[in-house]
Amino acid sequence: MKIEQCRWTVNQGWEPNSPNSNQSAHLVLVFGGTDILKTENYPQYFRQIYPNATIIGCSTAGEICDTQVTDDAIVVTAIEFEHTQIKGNYLPITKTSDSFAIGAKLAQSFPTEDLVHLFVLSDGLIVNGSDLISGLRSQLPEQVTVTGGLAGDGSRFAETLIFWNELLEKELVAAIGIYGDRIKIGYGSLGGWATFGPKRVVTKSQGNILYELDGLSALELYKKYLGDHAVGLPASGLLFPLSLYNAEGDRSVVRTILSIDEAEQSLTFAGDVPEGSVVQLMQTNFERLVDGAIGAAQTSISHMTQGSPDLAILISCVGRKLVLKQRIEEEVDGVREVMGQSTVLTGFYSYGEMAPTSMGERCELHNQTMTITTFSEQ
C-alpha cells in the first residue's frame, strides 16, 4: 500500500506540497471545513489530479492530519493498493425517515463476493444514523464489517457536505466497498464519558426525536441540567450527551443532540432514542477522553500479531473537541503512541461515528467516541 498525504490551510497553502498528478491512486479521502470546500471547484480539481481514483470525503468539525488538528483546512490522503479492489456508490437522502431504506439500497448495490468491509460517510444532519446502519446490515453478509461517520459542520449544525467523485453536495450517503483477502481491517471505538444524575425512562419519542422523559418535557429537563449552558443549545448539548442503555441494562451507546424544537419541546439526536429505553446524562474530563482514544487505538490493532497498520482513519466526535479545546491534539498524540510512527493518520471530527465497539461485534452508531479504522495490506 502506497500513501500520499497533503494538507491545505489558509496561512500555509498546501503542505508539504500541492497534490501531484497521480494516475495510480485507487482511493482518495478528502476531509475539509464546510466553507473552505465550497470556495473552489475542488471536485474537478481533484479529479484532474487523481483521474482513476474513487474520491470520497465530507465536511467536518475539524480535520486530522498526522497528529495535527485543524479547523477549516483540507486534508487529502491518496492510497494505492497492491492487492485490494475498491468499489463505490452513493445515494441521495432527503428525509430522515428514509434512512433505513437508503442504507439497505446502498448495501444492495455492492457485489458481496470477496467483500470484506464497507466504509460509509453520510450527511450529518438529515440522517438517522441508527436506521442507516440497520439498513446496511440488513443486506450485508454477517462477515462484512462496517465503519464510518456522519459529516460535520463545526459547531454550527447548519449544513454538512459529502464529497463523491465530481460531486460536493448535502443530503448524500456514500460508501466504499473493500474487496480481497490481502487486506486486514481493524477497528475500535471508545468514549471516556461518565454518567451522572438519575436514570430516566423515555416516555415519548419517535425515531431519533425525543419528546418526554418520565412524562416530562425532555427539552425542559435538559435545560434544567445544563443551567447557564442551555442558551448555547444545540451546540452546548454536546458537553452533556445521553447514555442510552440496552434492554438488559448492561451496556450502552451515547447519543448527542443535533437540533432542538422549541415549539414541539423536542430534541433531535443523531440516532434512535426508543420509547421505553433508559437514559442518563453524561459528562467527562480531559484525562478520560485521552484514555478513551488510546483504548480505541489499542482495540483497532488487537488483531495484528506484528508490525503497524499502513493507514488509520480517525473519526472523533465534535463534542470531544469542545471539551478538550486547546488540548485536542493530546487524543491524537495518544493514538500515535499506540500505532507507531509508520502509520499514516487521517480523519475528522464528526456528528456521529459508525463502528463496532470491538472486534467481532456488530456496527452501531456512536456519539462522543474516538472511532478508528485501520488498514493493512499483506
Number of helices in the DSSP assignment: 8
Low-confidence stretches: none
- Quaternary state, please? single chain
Q: Proportion of β residues?
A: 35-45%
Report the span from N to C terminus.
Answer: 9 Å
Global morphology? globular
Helix content range: 10-25%
pLDDT average, as an integer?
93
How many DSSP-defined strands?
A: 27
Rg, Cα atoms, Å: 19 Å
Main sheet properties: 8 strands, antiparallel
Structural class by helix and strand composition: alpha+beta
Count up the domains.
2
SSE layout and pairings?
Elements: E1 2-9, E2 13-15, E3 27-32, H1 34-37, H2 42-49, E4 54-59, E5 63-65, E6 68-70, E7 74-80, E8 85-92, H3 99-108, E9 115-122, H4 129-138, E10 145-150, E11 162-164, E12 167-169, E13 172-179, E14 183-190, E15 194-206, E16 209-213, E17 216-217, H5 218-226, E18 242-245, E19 252-255, E20 257-261, E21 266-269, E22 278-283, H6 286-300, E23 311-317, H7 318-324, H8 329-339, E24 344-350, E25 352-355, E26 364-366, E27 370-377
Parallel strand pairs: 3-4, 9-10, 23-24
Antiparallel strand pairs: 1-2, 1-7, 3-7, 4-11, 5-6, 5-24, 8-13, 9-13, 10-25, 11-12, 14-27, 15-16, 15-22, 16-17, 16-21, 18-19, 18-22, 20-21, 23-27, 25-26
Domain FIST: 24-217
InterPro entries: FIST_C, FIST_domain_N
Organism: Pseudanabaena biceps PCC 7429
